[in-house]
TrEMBL record:
MF GO annotations: metal ion binding; protein serine/threonine phosphatase activity
SUPFAM superfamilies according to UniProt: PP2C-like
Keyword Cell membrane: no
EC code: 3.1.3.16
Annotated ranges, domain PPM-type phosphatase: 2-242
Reaction catalysed by this enzyme: O-phospho-L-threonyl-[protein] + H2O = L-threonyl-[protein] + phosphate; O-phospho-L-seryl-[protein] + H2O = L-seryl-[protein] + phosphate
Known cofactor(s): Mn(2+)
CDD domains assigned to the protein according to its UniProt record, in alphabetical order: PP2Cc (cd00143)
Organism: Compostibacillus humi
Protein name: protein-serine/threonine phosphatase
Pfam families: PP2C_2
Alphabetical keyword list: Hydrolase, Manganese, Metal-binding, Protein phosphatase
Length: 259
């Protein structure tokens, strides 16, 4: 697969605490990551960028993965190491005390997607104009939904909908969810921070992502819509498509820097 990364400060925040990127190892295997930092002025920036930089460096040093199991083991090991790195930095720098970041990452092999996440940044898979959220939010409102105390509709507007129960770097050890799903021909994959999903319903995501347009144009349309609806948060996304799209003439950006 191949894709594009877009990030936007939004309409209200004075700085962007999101970070992300698309990176390739020595065998041109793809790792895509979004991180949404938290923890006060500047500290969120530090946590998210530390996570992206550390994962990028580690990924680009790898040679080749032959199985999903190898990738799952790699992700668990290195995300745990990055968690410890951010946690130690926060402990030794008072201005960063309490900082952390969400993380959602996807590795693309020939026949599989391996997904790891912590927090409420999401991964969606689009197949034949149907949408599936393949990650489960580690958030307060999702826990209330799962326990039957809150409906999904109420969760979407709950005043504490942005409270996460797990974050990378906020504690010495962290639990992450790692899973493998089939990589089917023609699918699209969306990674995004909650600045996008707080403003755009899944049905709208499905409609826009399914459009037969270049993926950077689709990504910009999603960000513009989130900003039109208030843009109170930073907005970041990665959109990945099957390489066959490129052969059919679709223009795709492999890399896009953080803004």
């Amino acid at each position: 697969m191949i894709g594009t990364f877009l990030t936007d400060r939004g309409k209200v925040r004075t700085h962007n605490e999101d970070a992300g990127g698309i990176f390739y190892n020595e065998s041109n295997q793809l790792l895509a990551i979004i991180a949404d930092g938290m923890g006060g002025h500047q500290a969120g920036d530090v946590a998210s960028q530390m996570a992206i930089n550390a994962m990028k460096e580690r990924w680009e040093e790898t040679k080749r993965f032959s199985s999903p199991e190898e990738v799952e083991t790699w992700l668990k090991k290195h995300i745990s190491e990055v968690n410890a790195l951010i946690y130690r930095h926060a402990q030794s720098n008072k201005e960063c005390e309490g900082m952390g970041t969400t993380i959602v990452s996807v590795v693309c092999l020939d026949e599989h997607l391996i997904i790891a996440h912590i927090g409420d940044s999401r991964c969606y898979v689009f197949r034949q104009q149907t949408i599936e959220q393949v990650t489960e939010d580690h958030s307060l409102v999702n826990a209330l939904v799962q326990s039957g105390q809150l409906s999904k509709d109420d969760a979407a507007t709950h005043p504490r909908r942005n409270v996460v129960l797990r974050a990378l770097g906020s504690e010495e050890k962290v639990n992450m969810d790692v899973q493998t799903v089939p990589l089917e021909k023609g699918i699209k994959v969306l990674l995004c921070s909650d600045g996008l999903t707080d403003k755009i319903r899944d049905e709208e995501l499905s409609e826009i992502v399914s459009e037969d347009k270049p993926i950077e144009e689709i990504g910009r349309k999603l960000i513009d819509l989130a900003n039109e609806r208030g843009g109170e948060d930073n907005i970041s996304l990665i959109l990945l498509v099957d390489d066959a799209k490129v052969e059919a003439g679709e223009k795709v950006e492999k890399r896009s820097p953080s803004q």
